[in-house]
Structures are given as structure tokens and as C-alpha cells.
Amino acid sequence: MNALVLHVARPITLWALHFIAIYALISAACAPRAVLETDMMRAAAALATLAAGLVVMAWLVTARRRLKRLAPEARERPLAVAAVWSAAISLMAIIADSWPVAFLTNCSG
């Protein structure tokens, strides 16, 4: 049962870390001192999005397989369903996090 709670929590945690990383990269590129070039920020954001997306996608596939193996009356079934939804929603959130980087033409305004 405790393992399933971790399966629910880890995609959300990875999404939160991805969110922080994307906005830290934007802040580093758009700060008055411009610690990063815009192209470097885009590359790092794309790499972070790809890595996080692939990991969450793998967790989603694993969660779906685990759910299919469970009997309909199993005690763990609600947490298995929550793990699938957690991974699916986190994957969509990771993709949505990268939109500001994709549409950021310059740092003014």
C-alpha cells in the first residue's frame, strides 16, 4: 500500500521540480544581468522537458500495467487508479510548463 502512495506522489513531485526549473531558467535568461542567453535557456528547458516527460511517461505506462493486473475488488485499486491519473495529469502539466519558453520571443514585457 505504501508503494502505491509513492507511485501517486512521484509524478507530481517531478512536475513541481520541472516547474521550478523552467521558471528559474526563464528568470536567469530574462534578469537584468542575463545570466543565460535565450538560446541556452531554450535548450536547457527543452532538455528538462524531454527528460521529465519521458520519465513520467514511463511511470504512466507502469501504472497502467499495474492497474490492469489488479482485480476489480482489490483493496489497492483506488490508489492504482490515482497513480494513473497522477501520472497523466503530471505529463500534461510538464508539457504546459514549457509553453512560456516556446512562445517567449524576447524578455521585454
Helix content estimate: over 70%
Q: Choose one word for the global shape.
A: elongated
SS elements, strand count: 0
- The number of distinct helices, counting runs of at least 4 residues, comes to 4
The fraction of residues in strands falls at under 5%
Q: Write down the Rg.
A: 17 Å
Average pLDDT value?
A: 92
Can you write the helix and strand succession as a string? HHHH
Unreliable segments of 5+ consecutive residues? none
Domain module count: 1
Describe this structure in words.
The protein is mainly alpha-helical and 109 residues long. The chain has one domain. 80% of the residues lie in helices and 0% in strands. It has four helices and no strands. α1 (2-30) runs antiparallel to α2, α1 runs parallel beside α3 (77-97) and α2 (38-69) runs antiparallel to α3 (77-97). The longest helix has 32 residues, at 38-69. It is elongated and about 60 Å long. The N and C termini lie far apart (48 Å).
Task: Give a quick summary of the entry.
The protein has helices at residues 2-30, 38-69, 77-97, 99-103.
List keywords for this structure.
about 110 residues, mainly alpha, 4 helices
